[in-house]
Design goal:
Blueprint (H helix, E strand, L loop, with lengths): L2 H29 L4 E2 L2 E2 H25 L8 H21 L1 H5 L5
Antiparallel strand pairs: 1-2
């Protein structure tokens, strides 16, 4: 893994997750998906599942950045990649939380 990818991967994954989940939100609202599963409306269930997948993906990526096999030889690059990894995880959790916590399609 190159140093540039190591540093930028978490923010780029956050960007992709943010776009995908709010795109899914638009599709759900625009096409009126109906139904229920596990005692929840299908719309809410899809958004919660997408949120969980995004957060788990960021957490897995953060764990991979700490793995010695993927570590950089530069202390600076390691520090910055860990910082951007944590930033990506927090940004994913925080910026996508309204999708889970608020009403949809209102």
């Amino acid at each position: 893994m190159t140093d540039l990818i190591r540093i930028l991967i978490a923010p780029l994954v956050w960007l992709a997750a943010f776009s995908a989940i709010y795109g899914l939100h638009g599709l759900i609202c625009g096409h009126g998906i109906e139904g229920a599963a596990l005692g929840l409306p299908m719309q809410r269930l899809l958004l919660i599942m997408a949120y969980i997948v995004a957060v788990l993906l960021q957490a897995t990526l953060l764990a991979a950045l700490y793995h010695p096999r993927l570590a950089s030889t530069s202390n600076f690059v390691s520090f910055v990649s860990h910082a951007t990894g944590w930033t990506g995880l927090v940004a994913t959790g925080w910026s996508l939380l309204p999708v889970v916590m608020t009403s949809y399609c209102t």
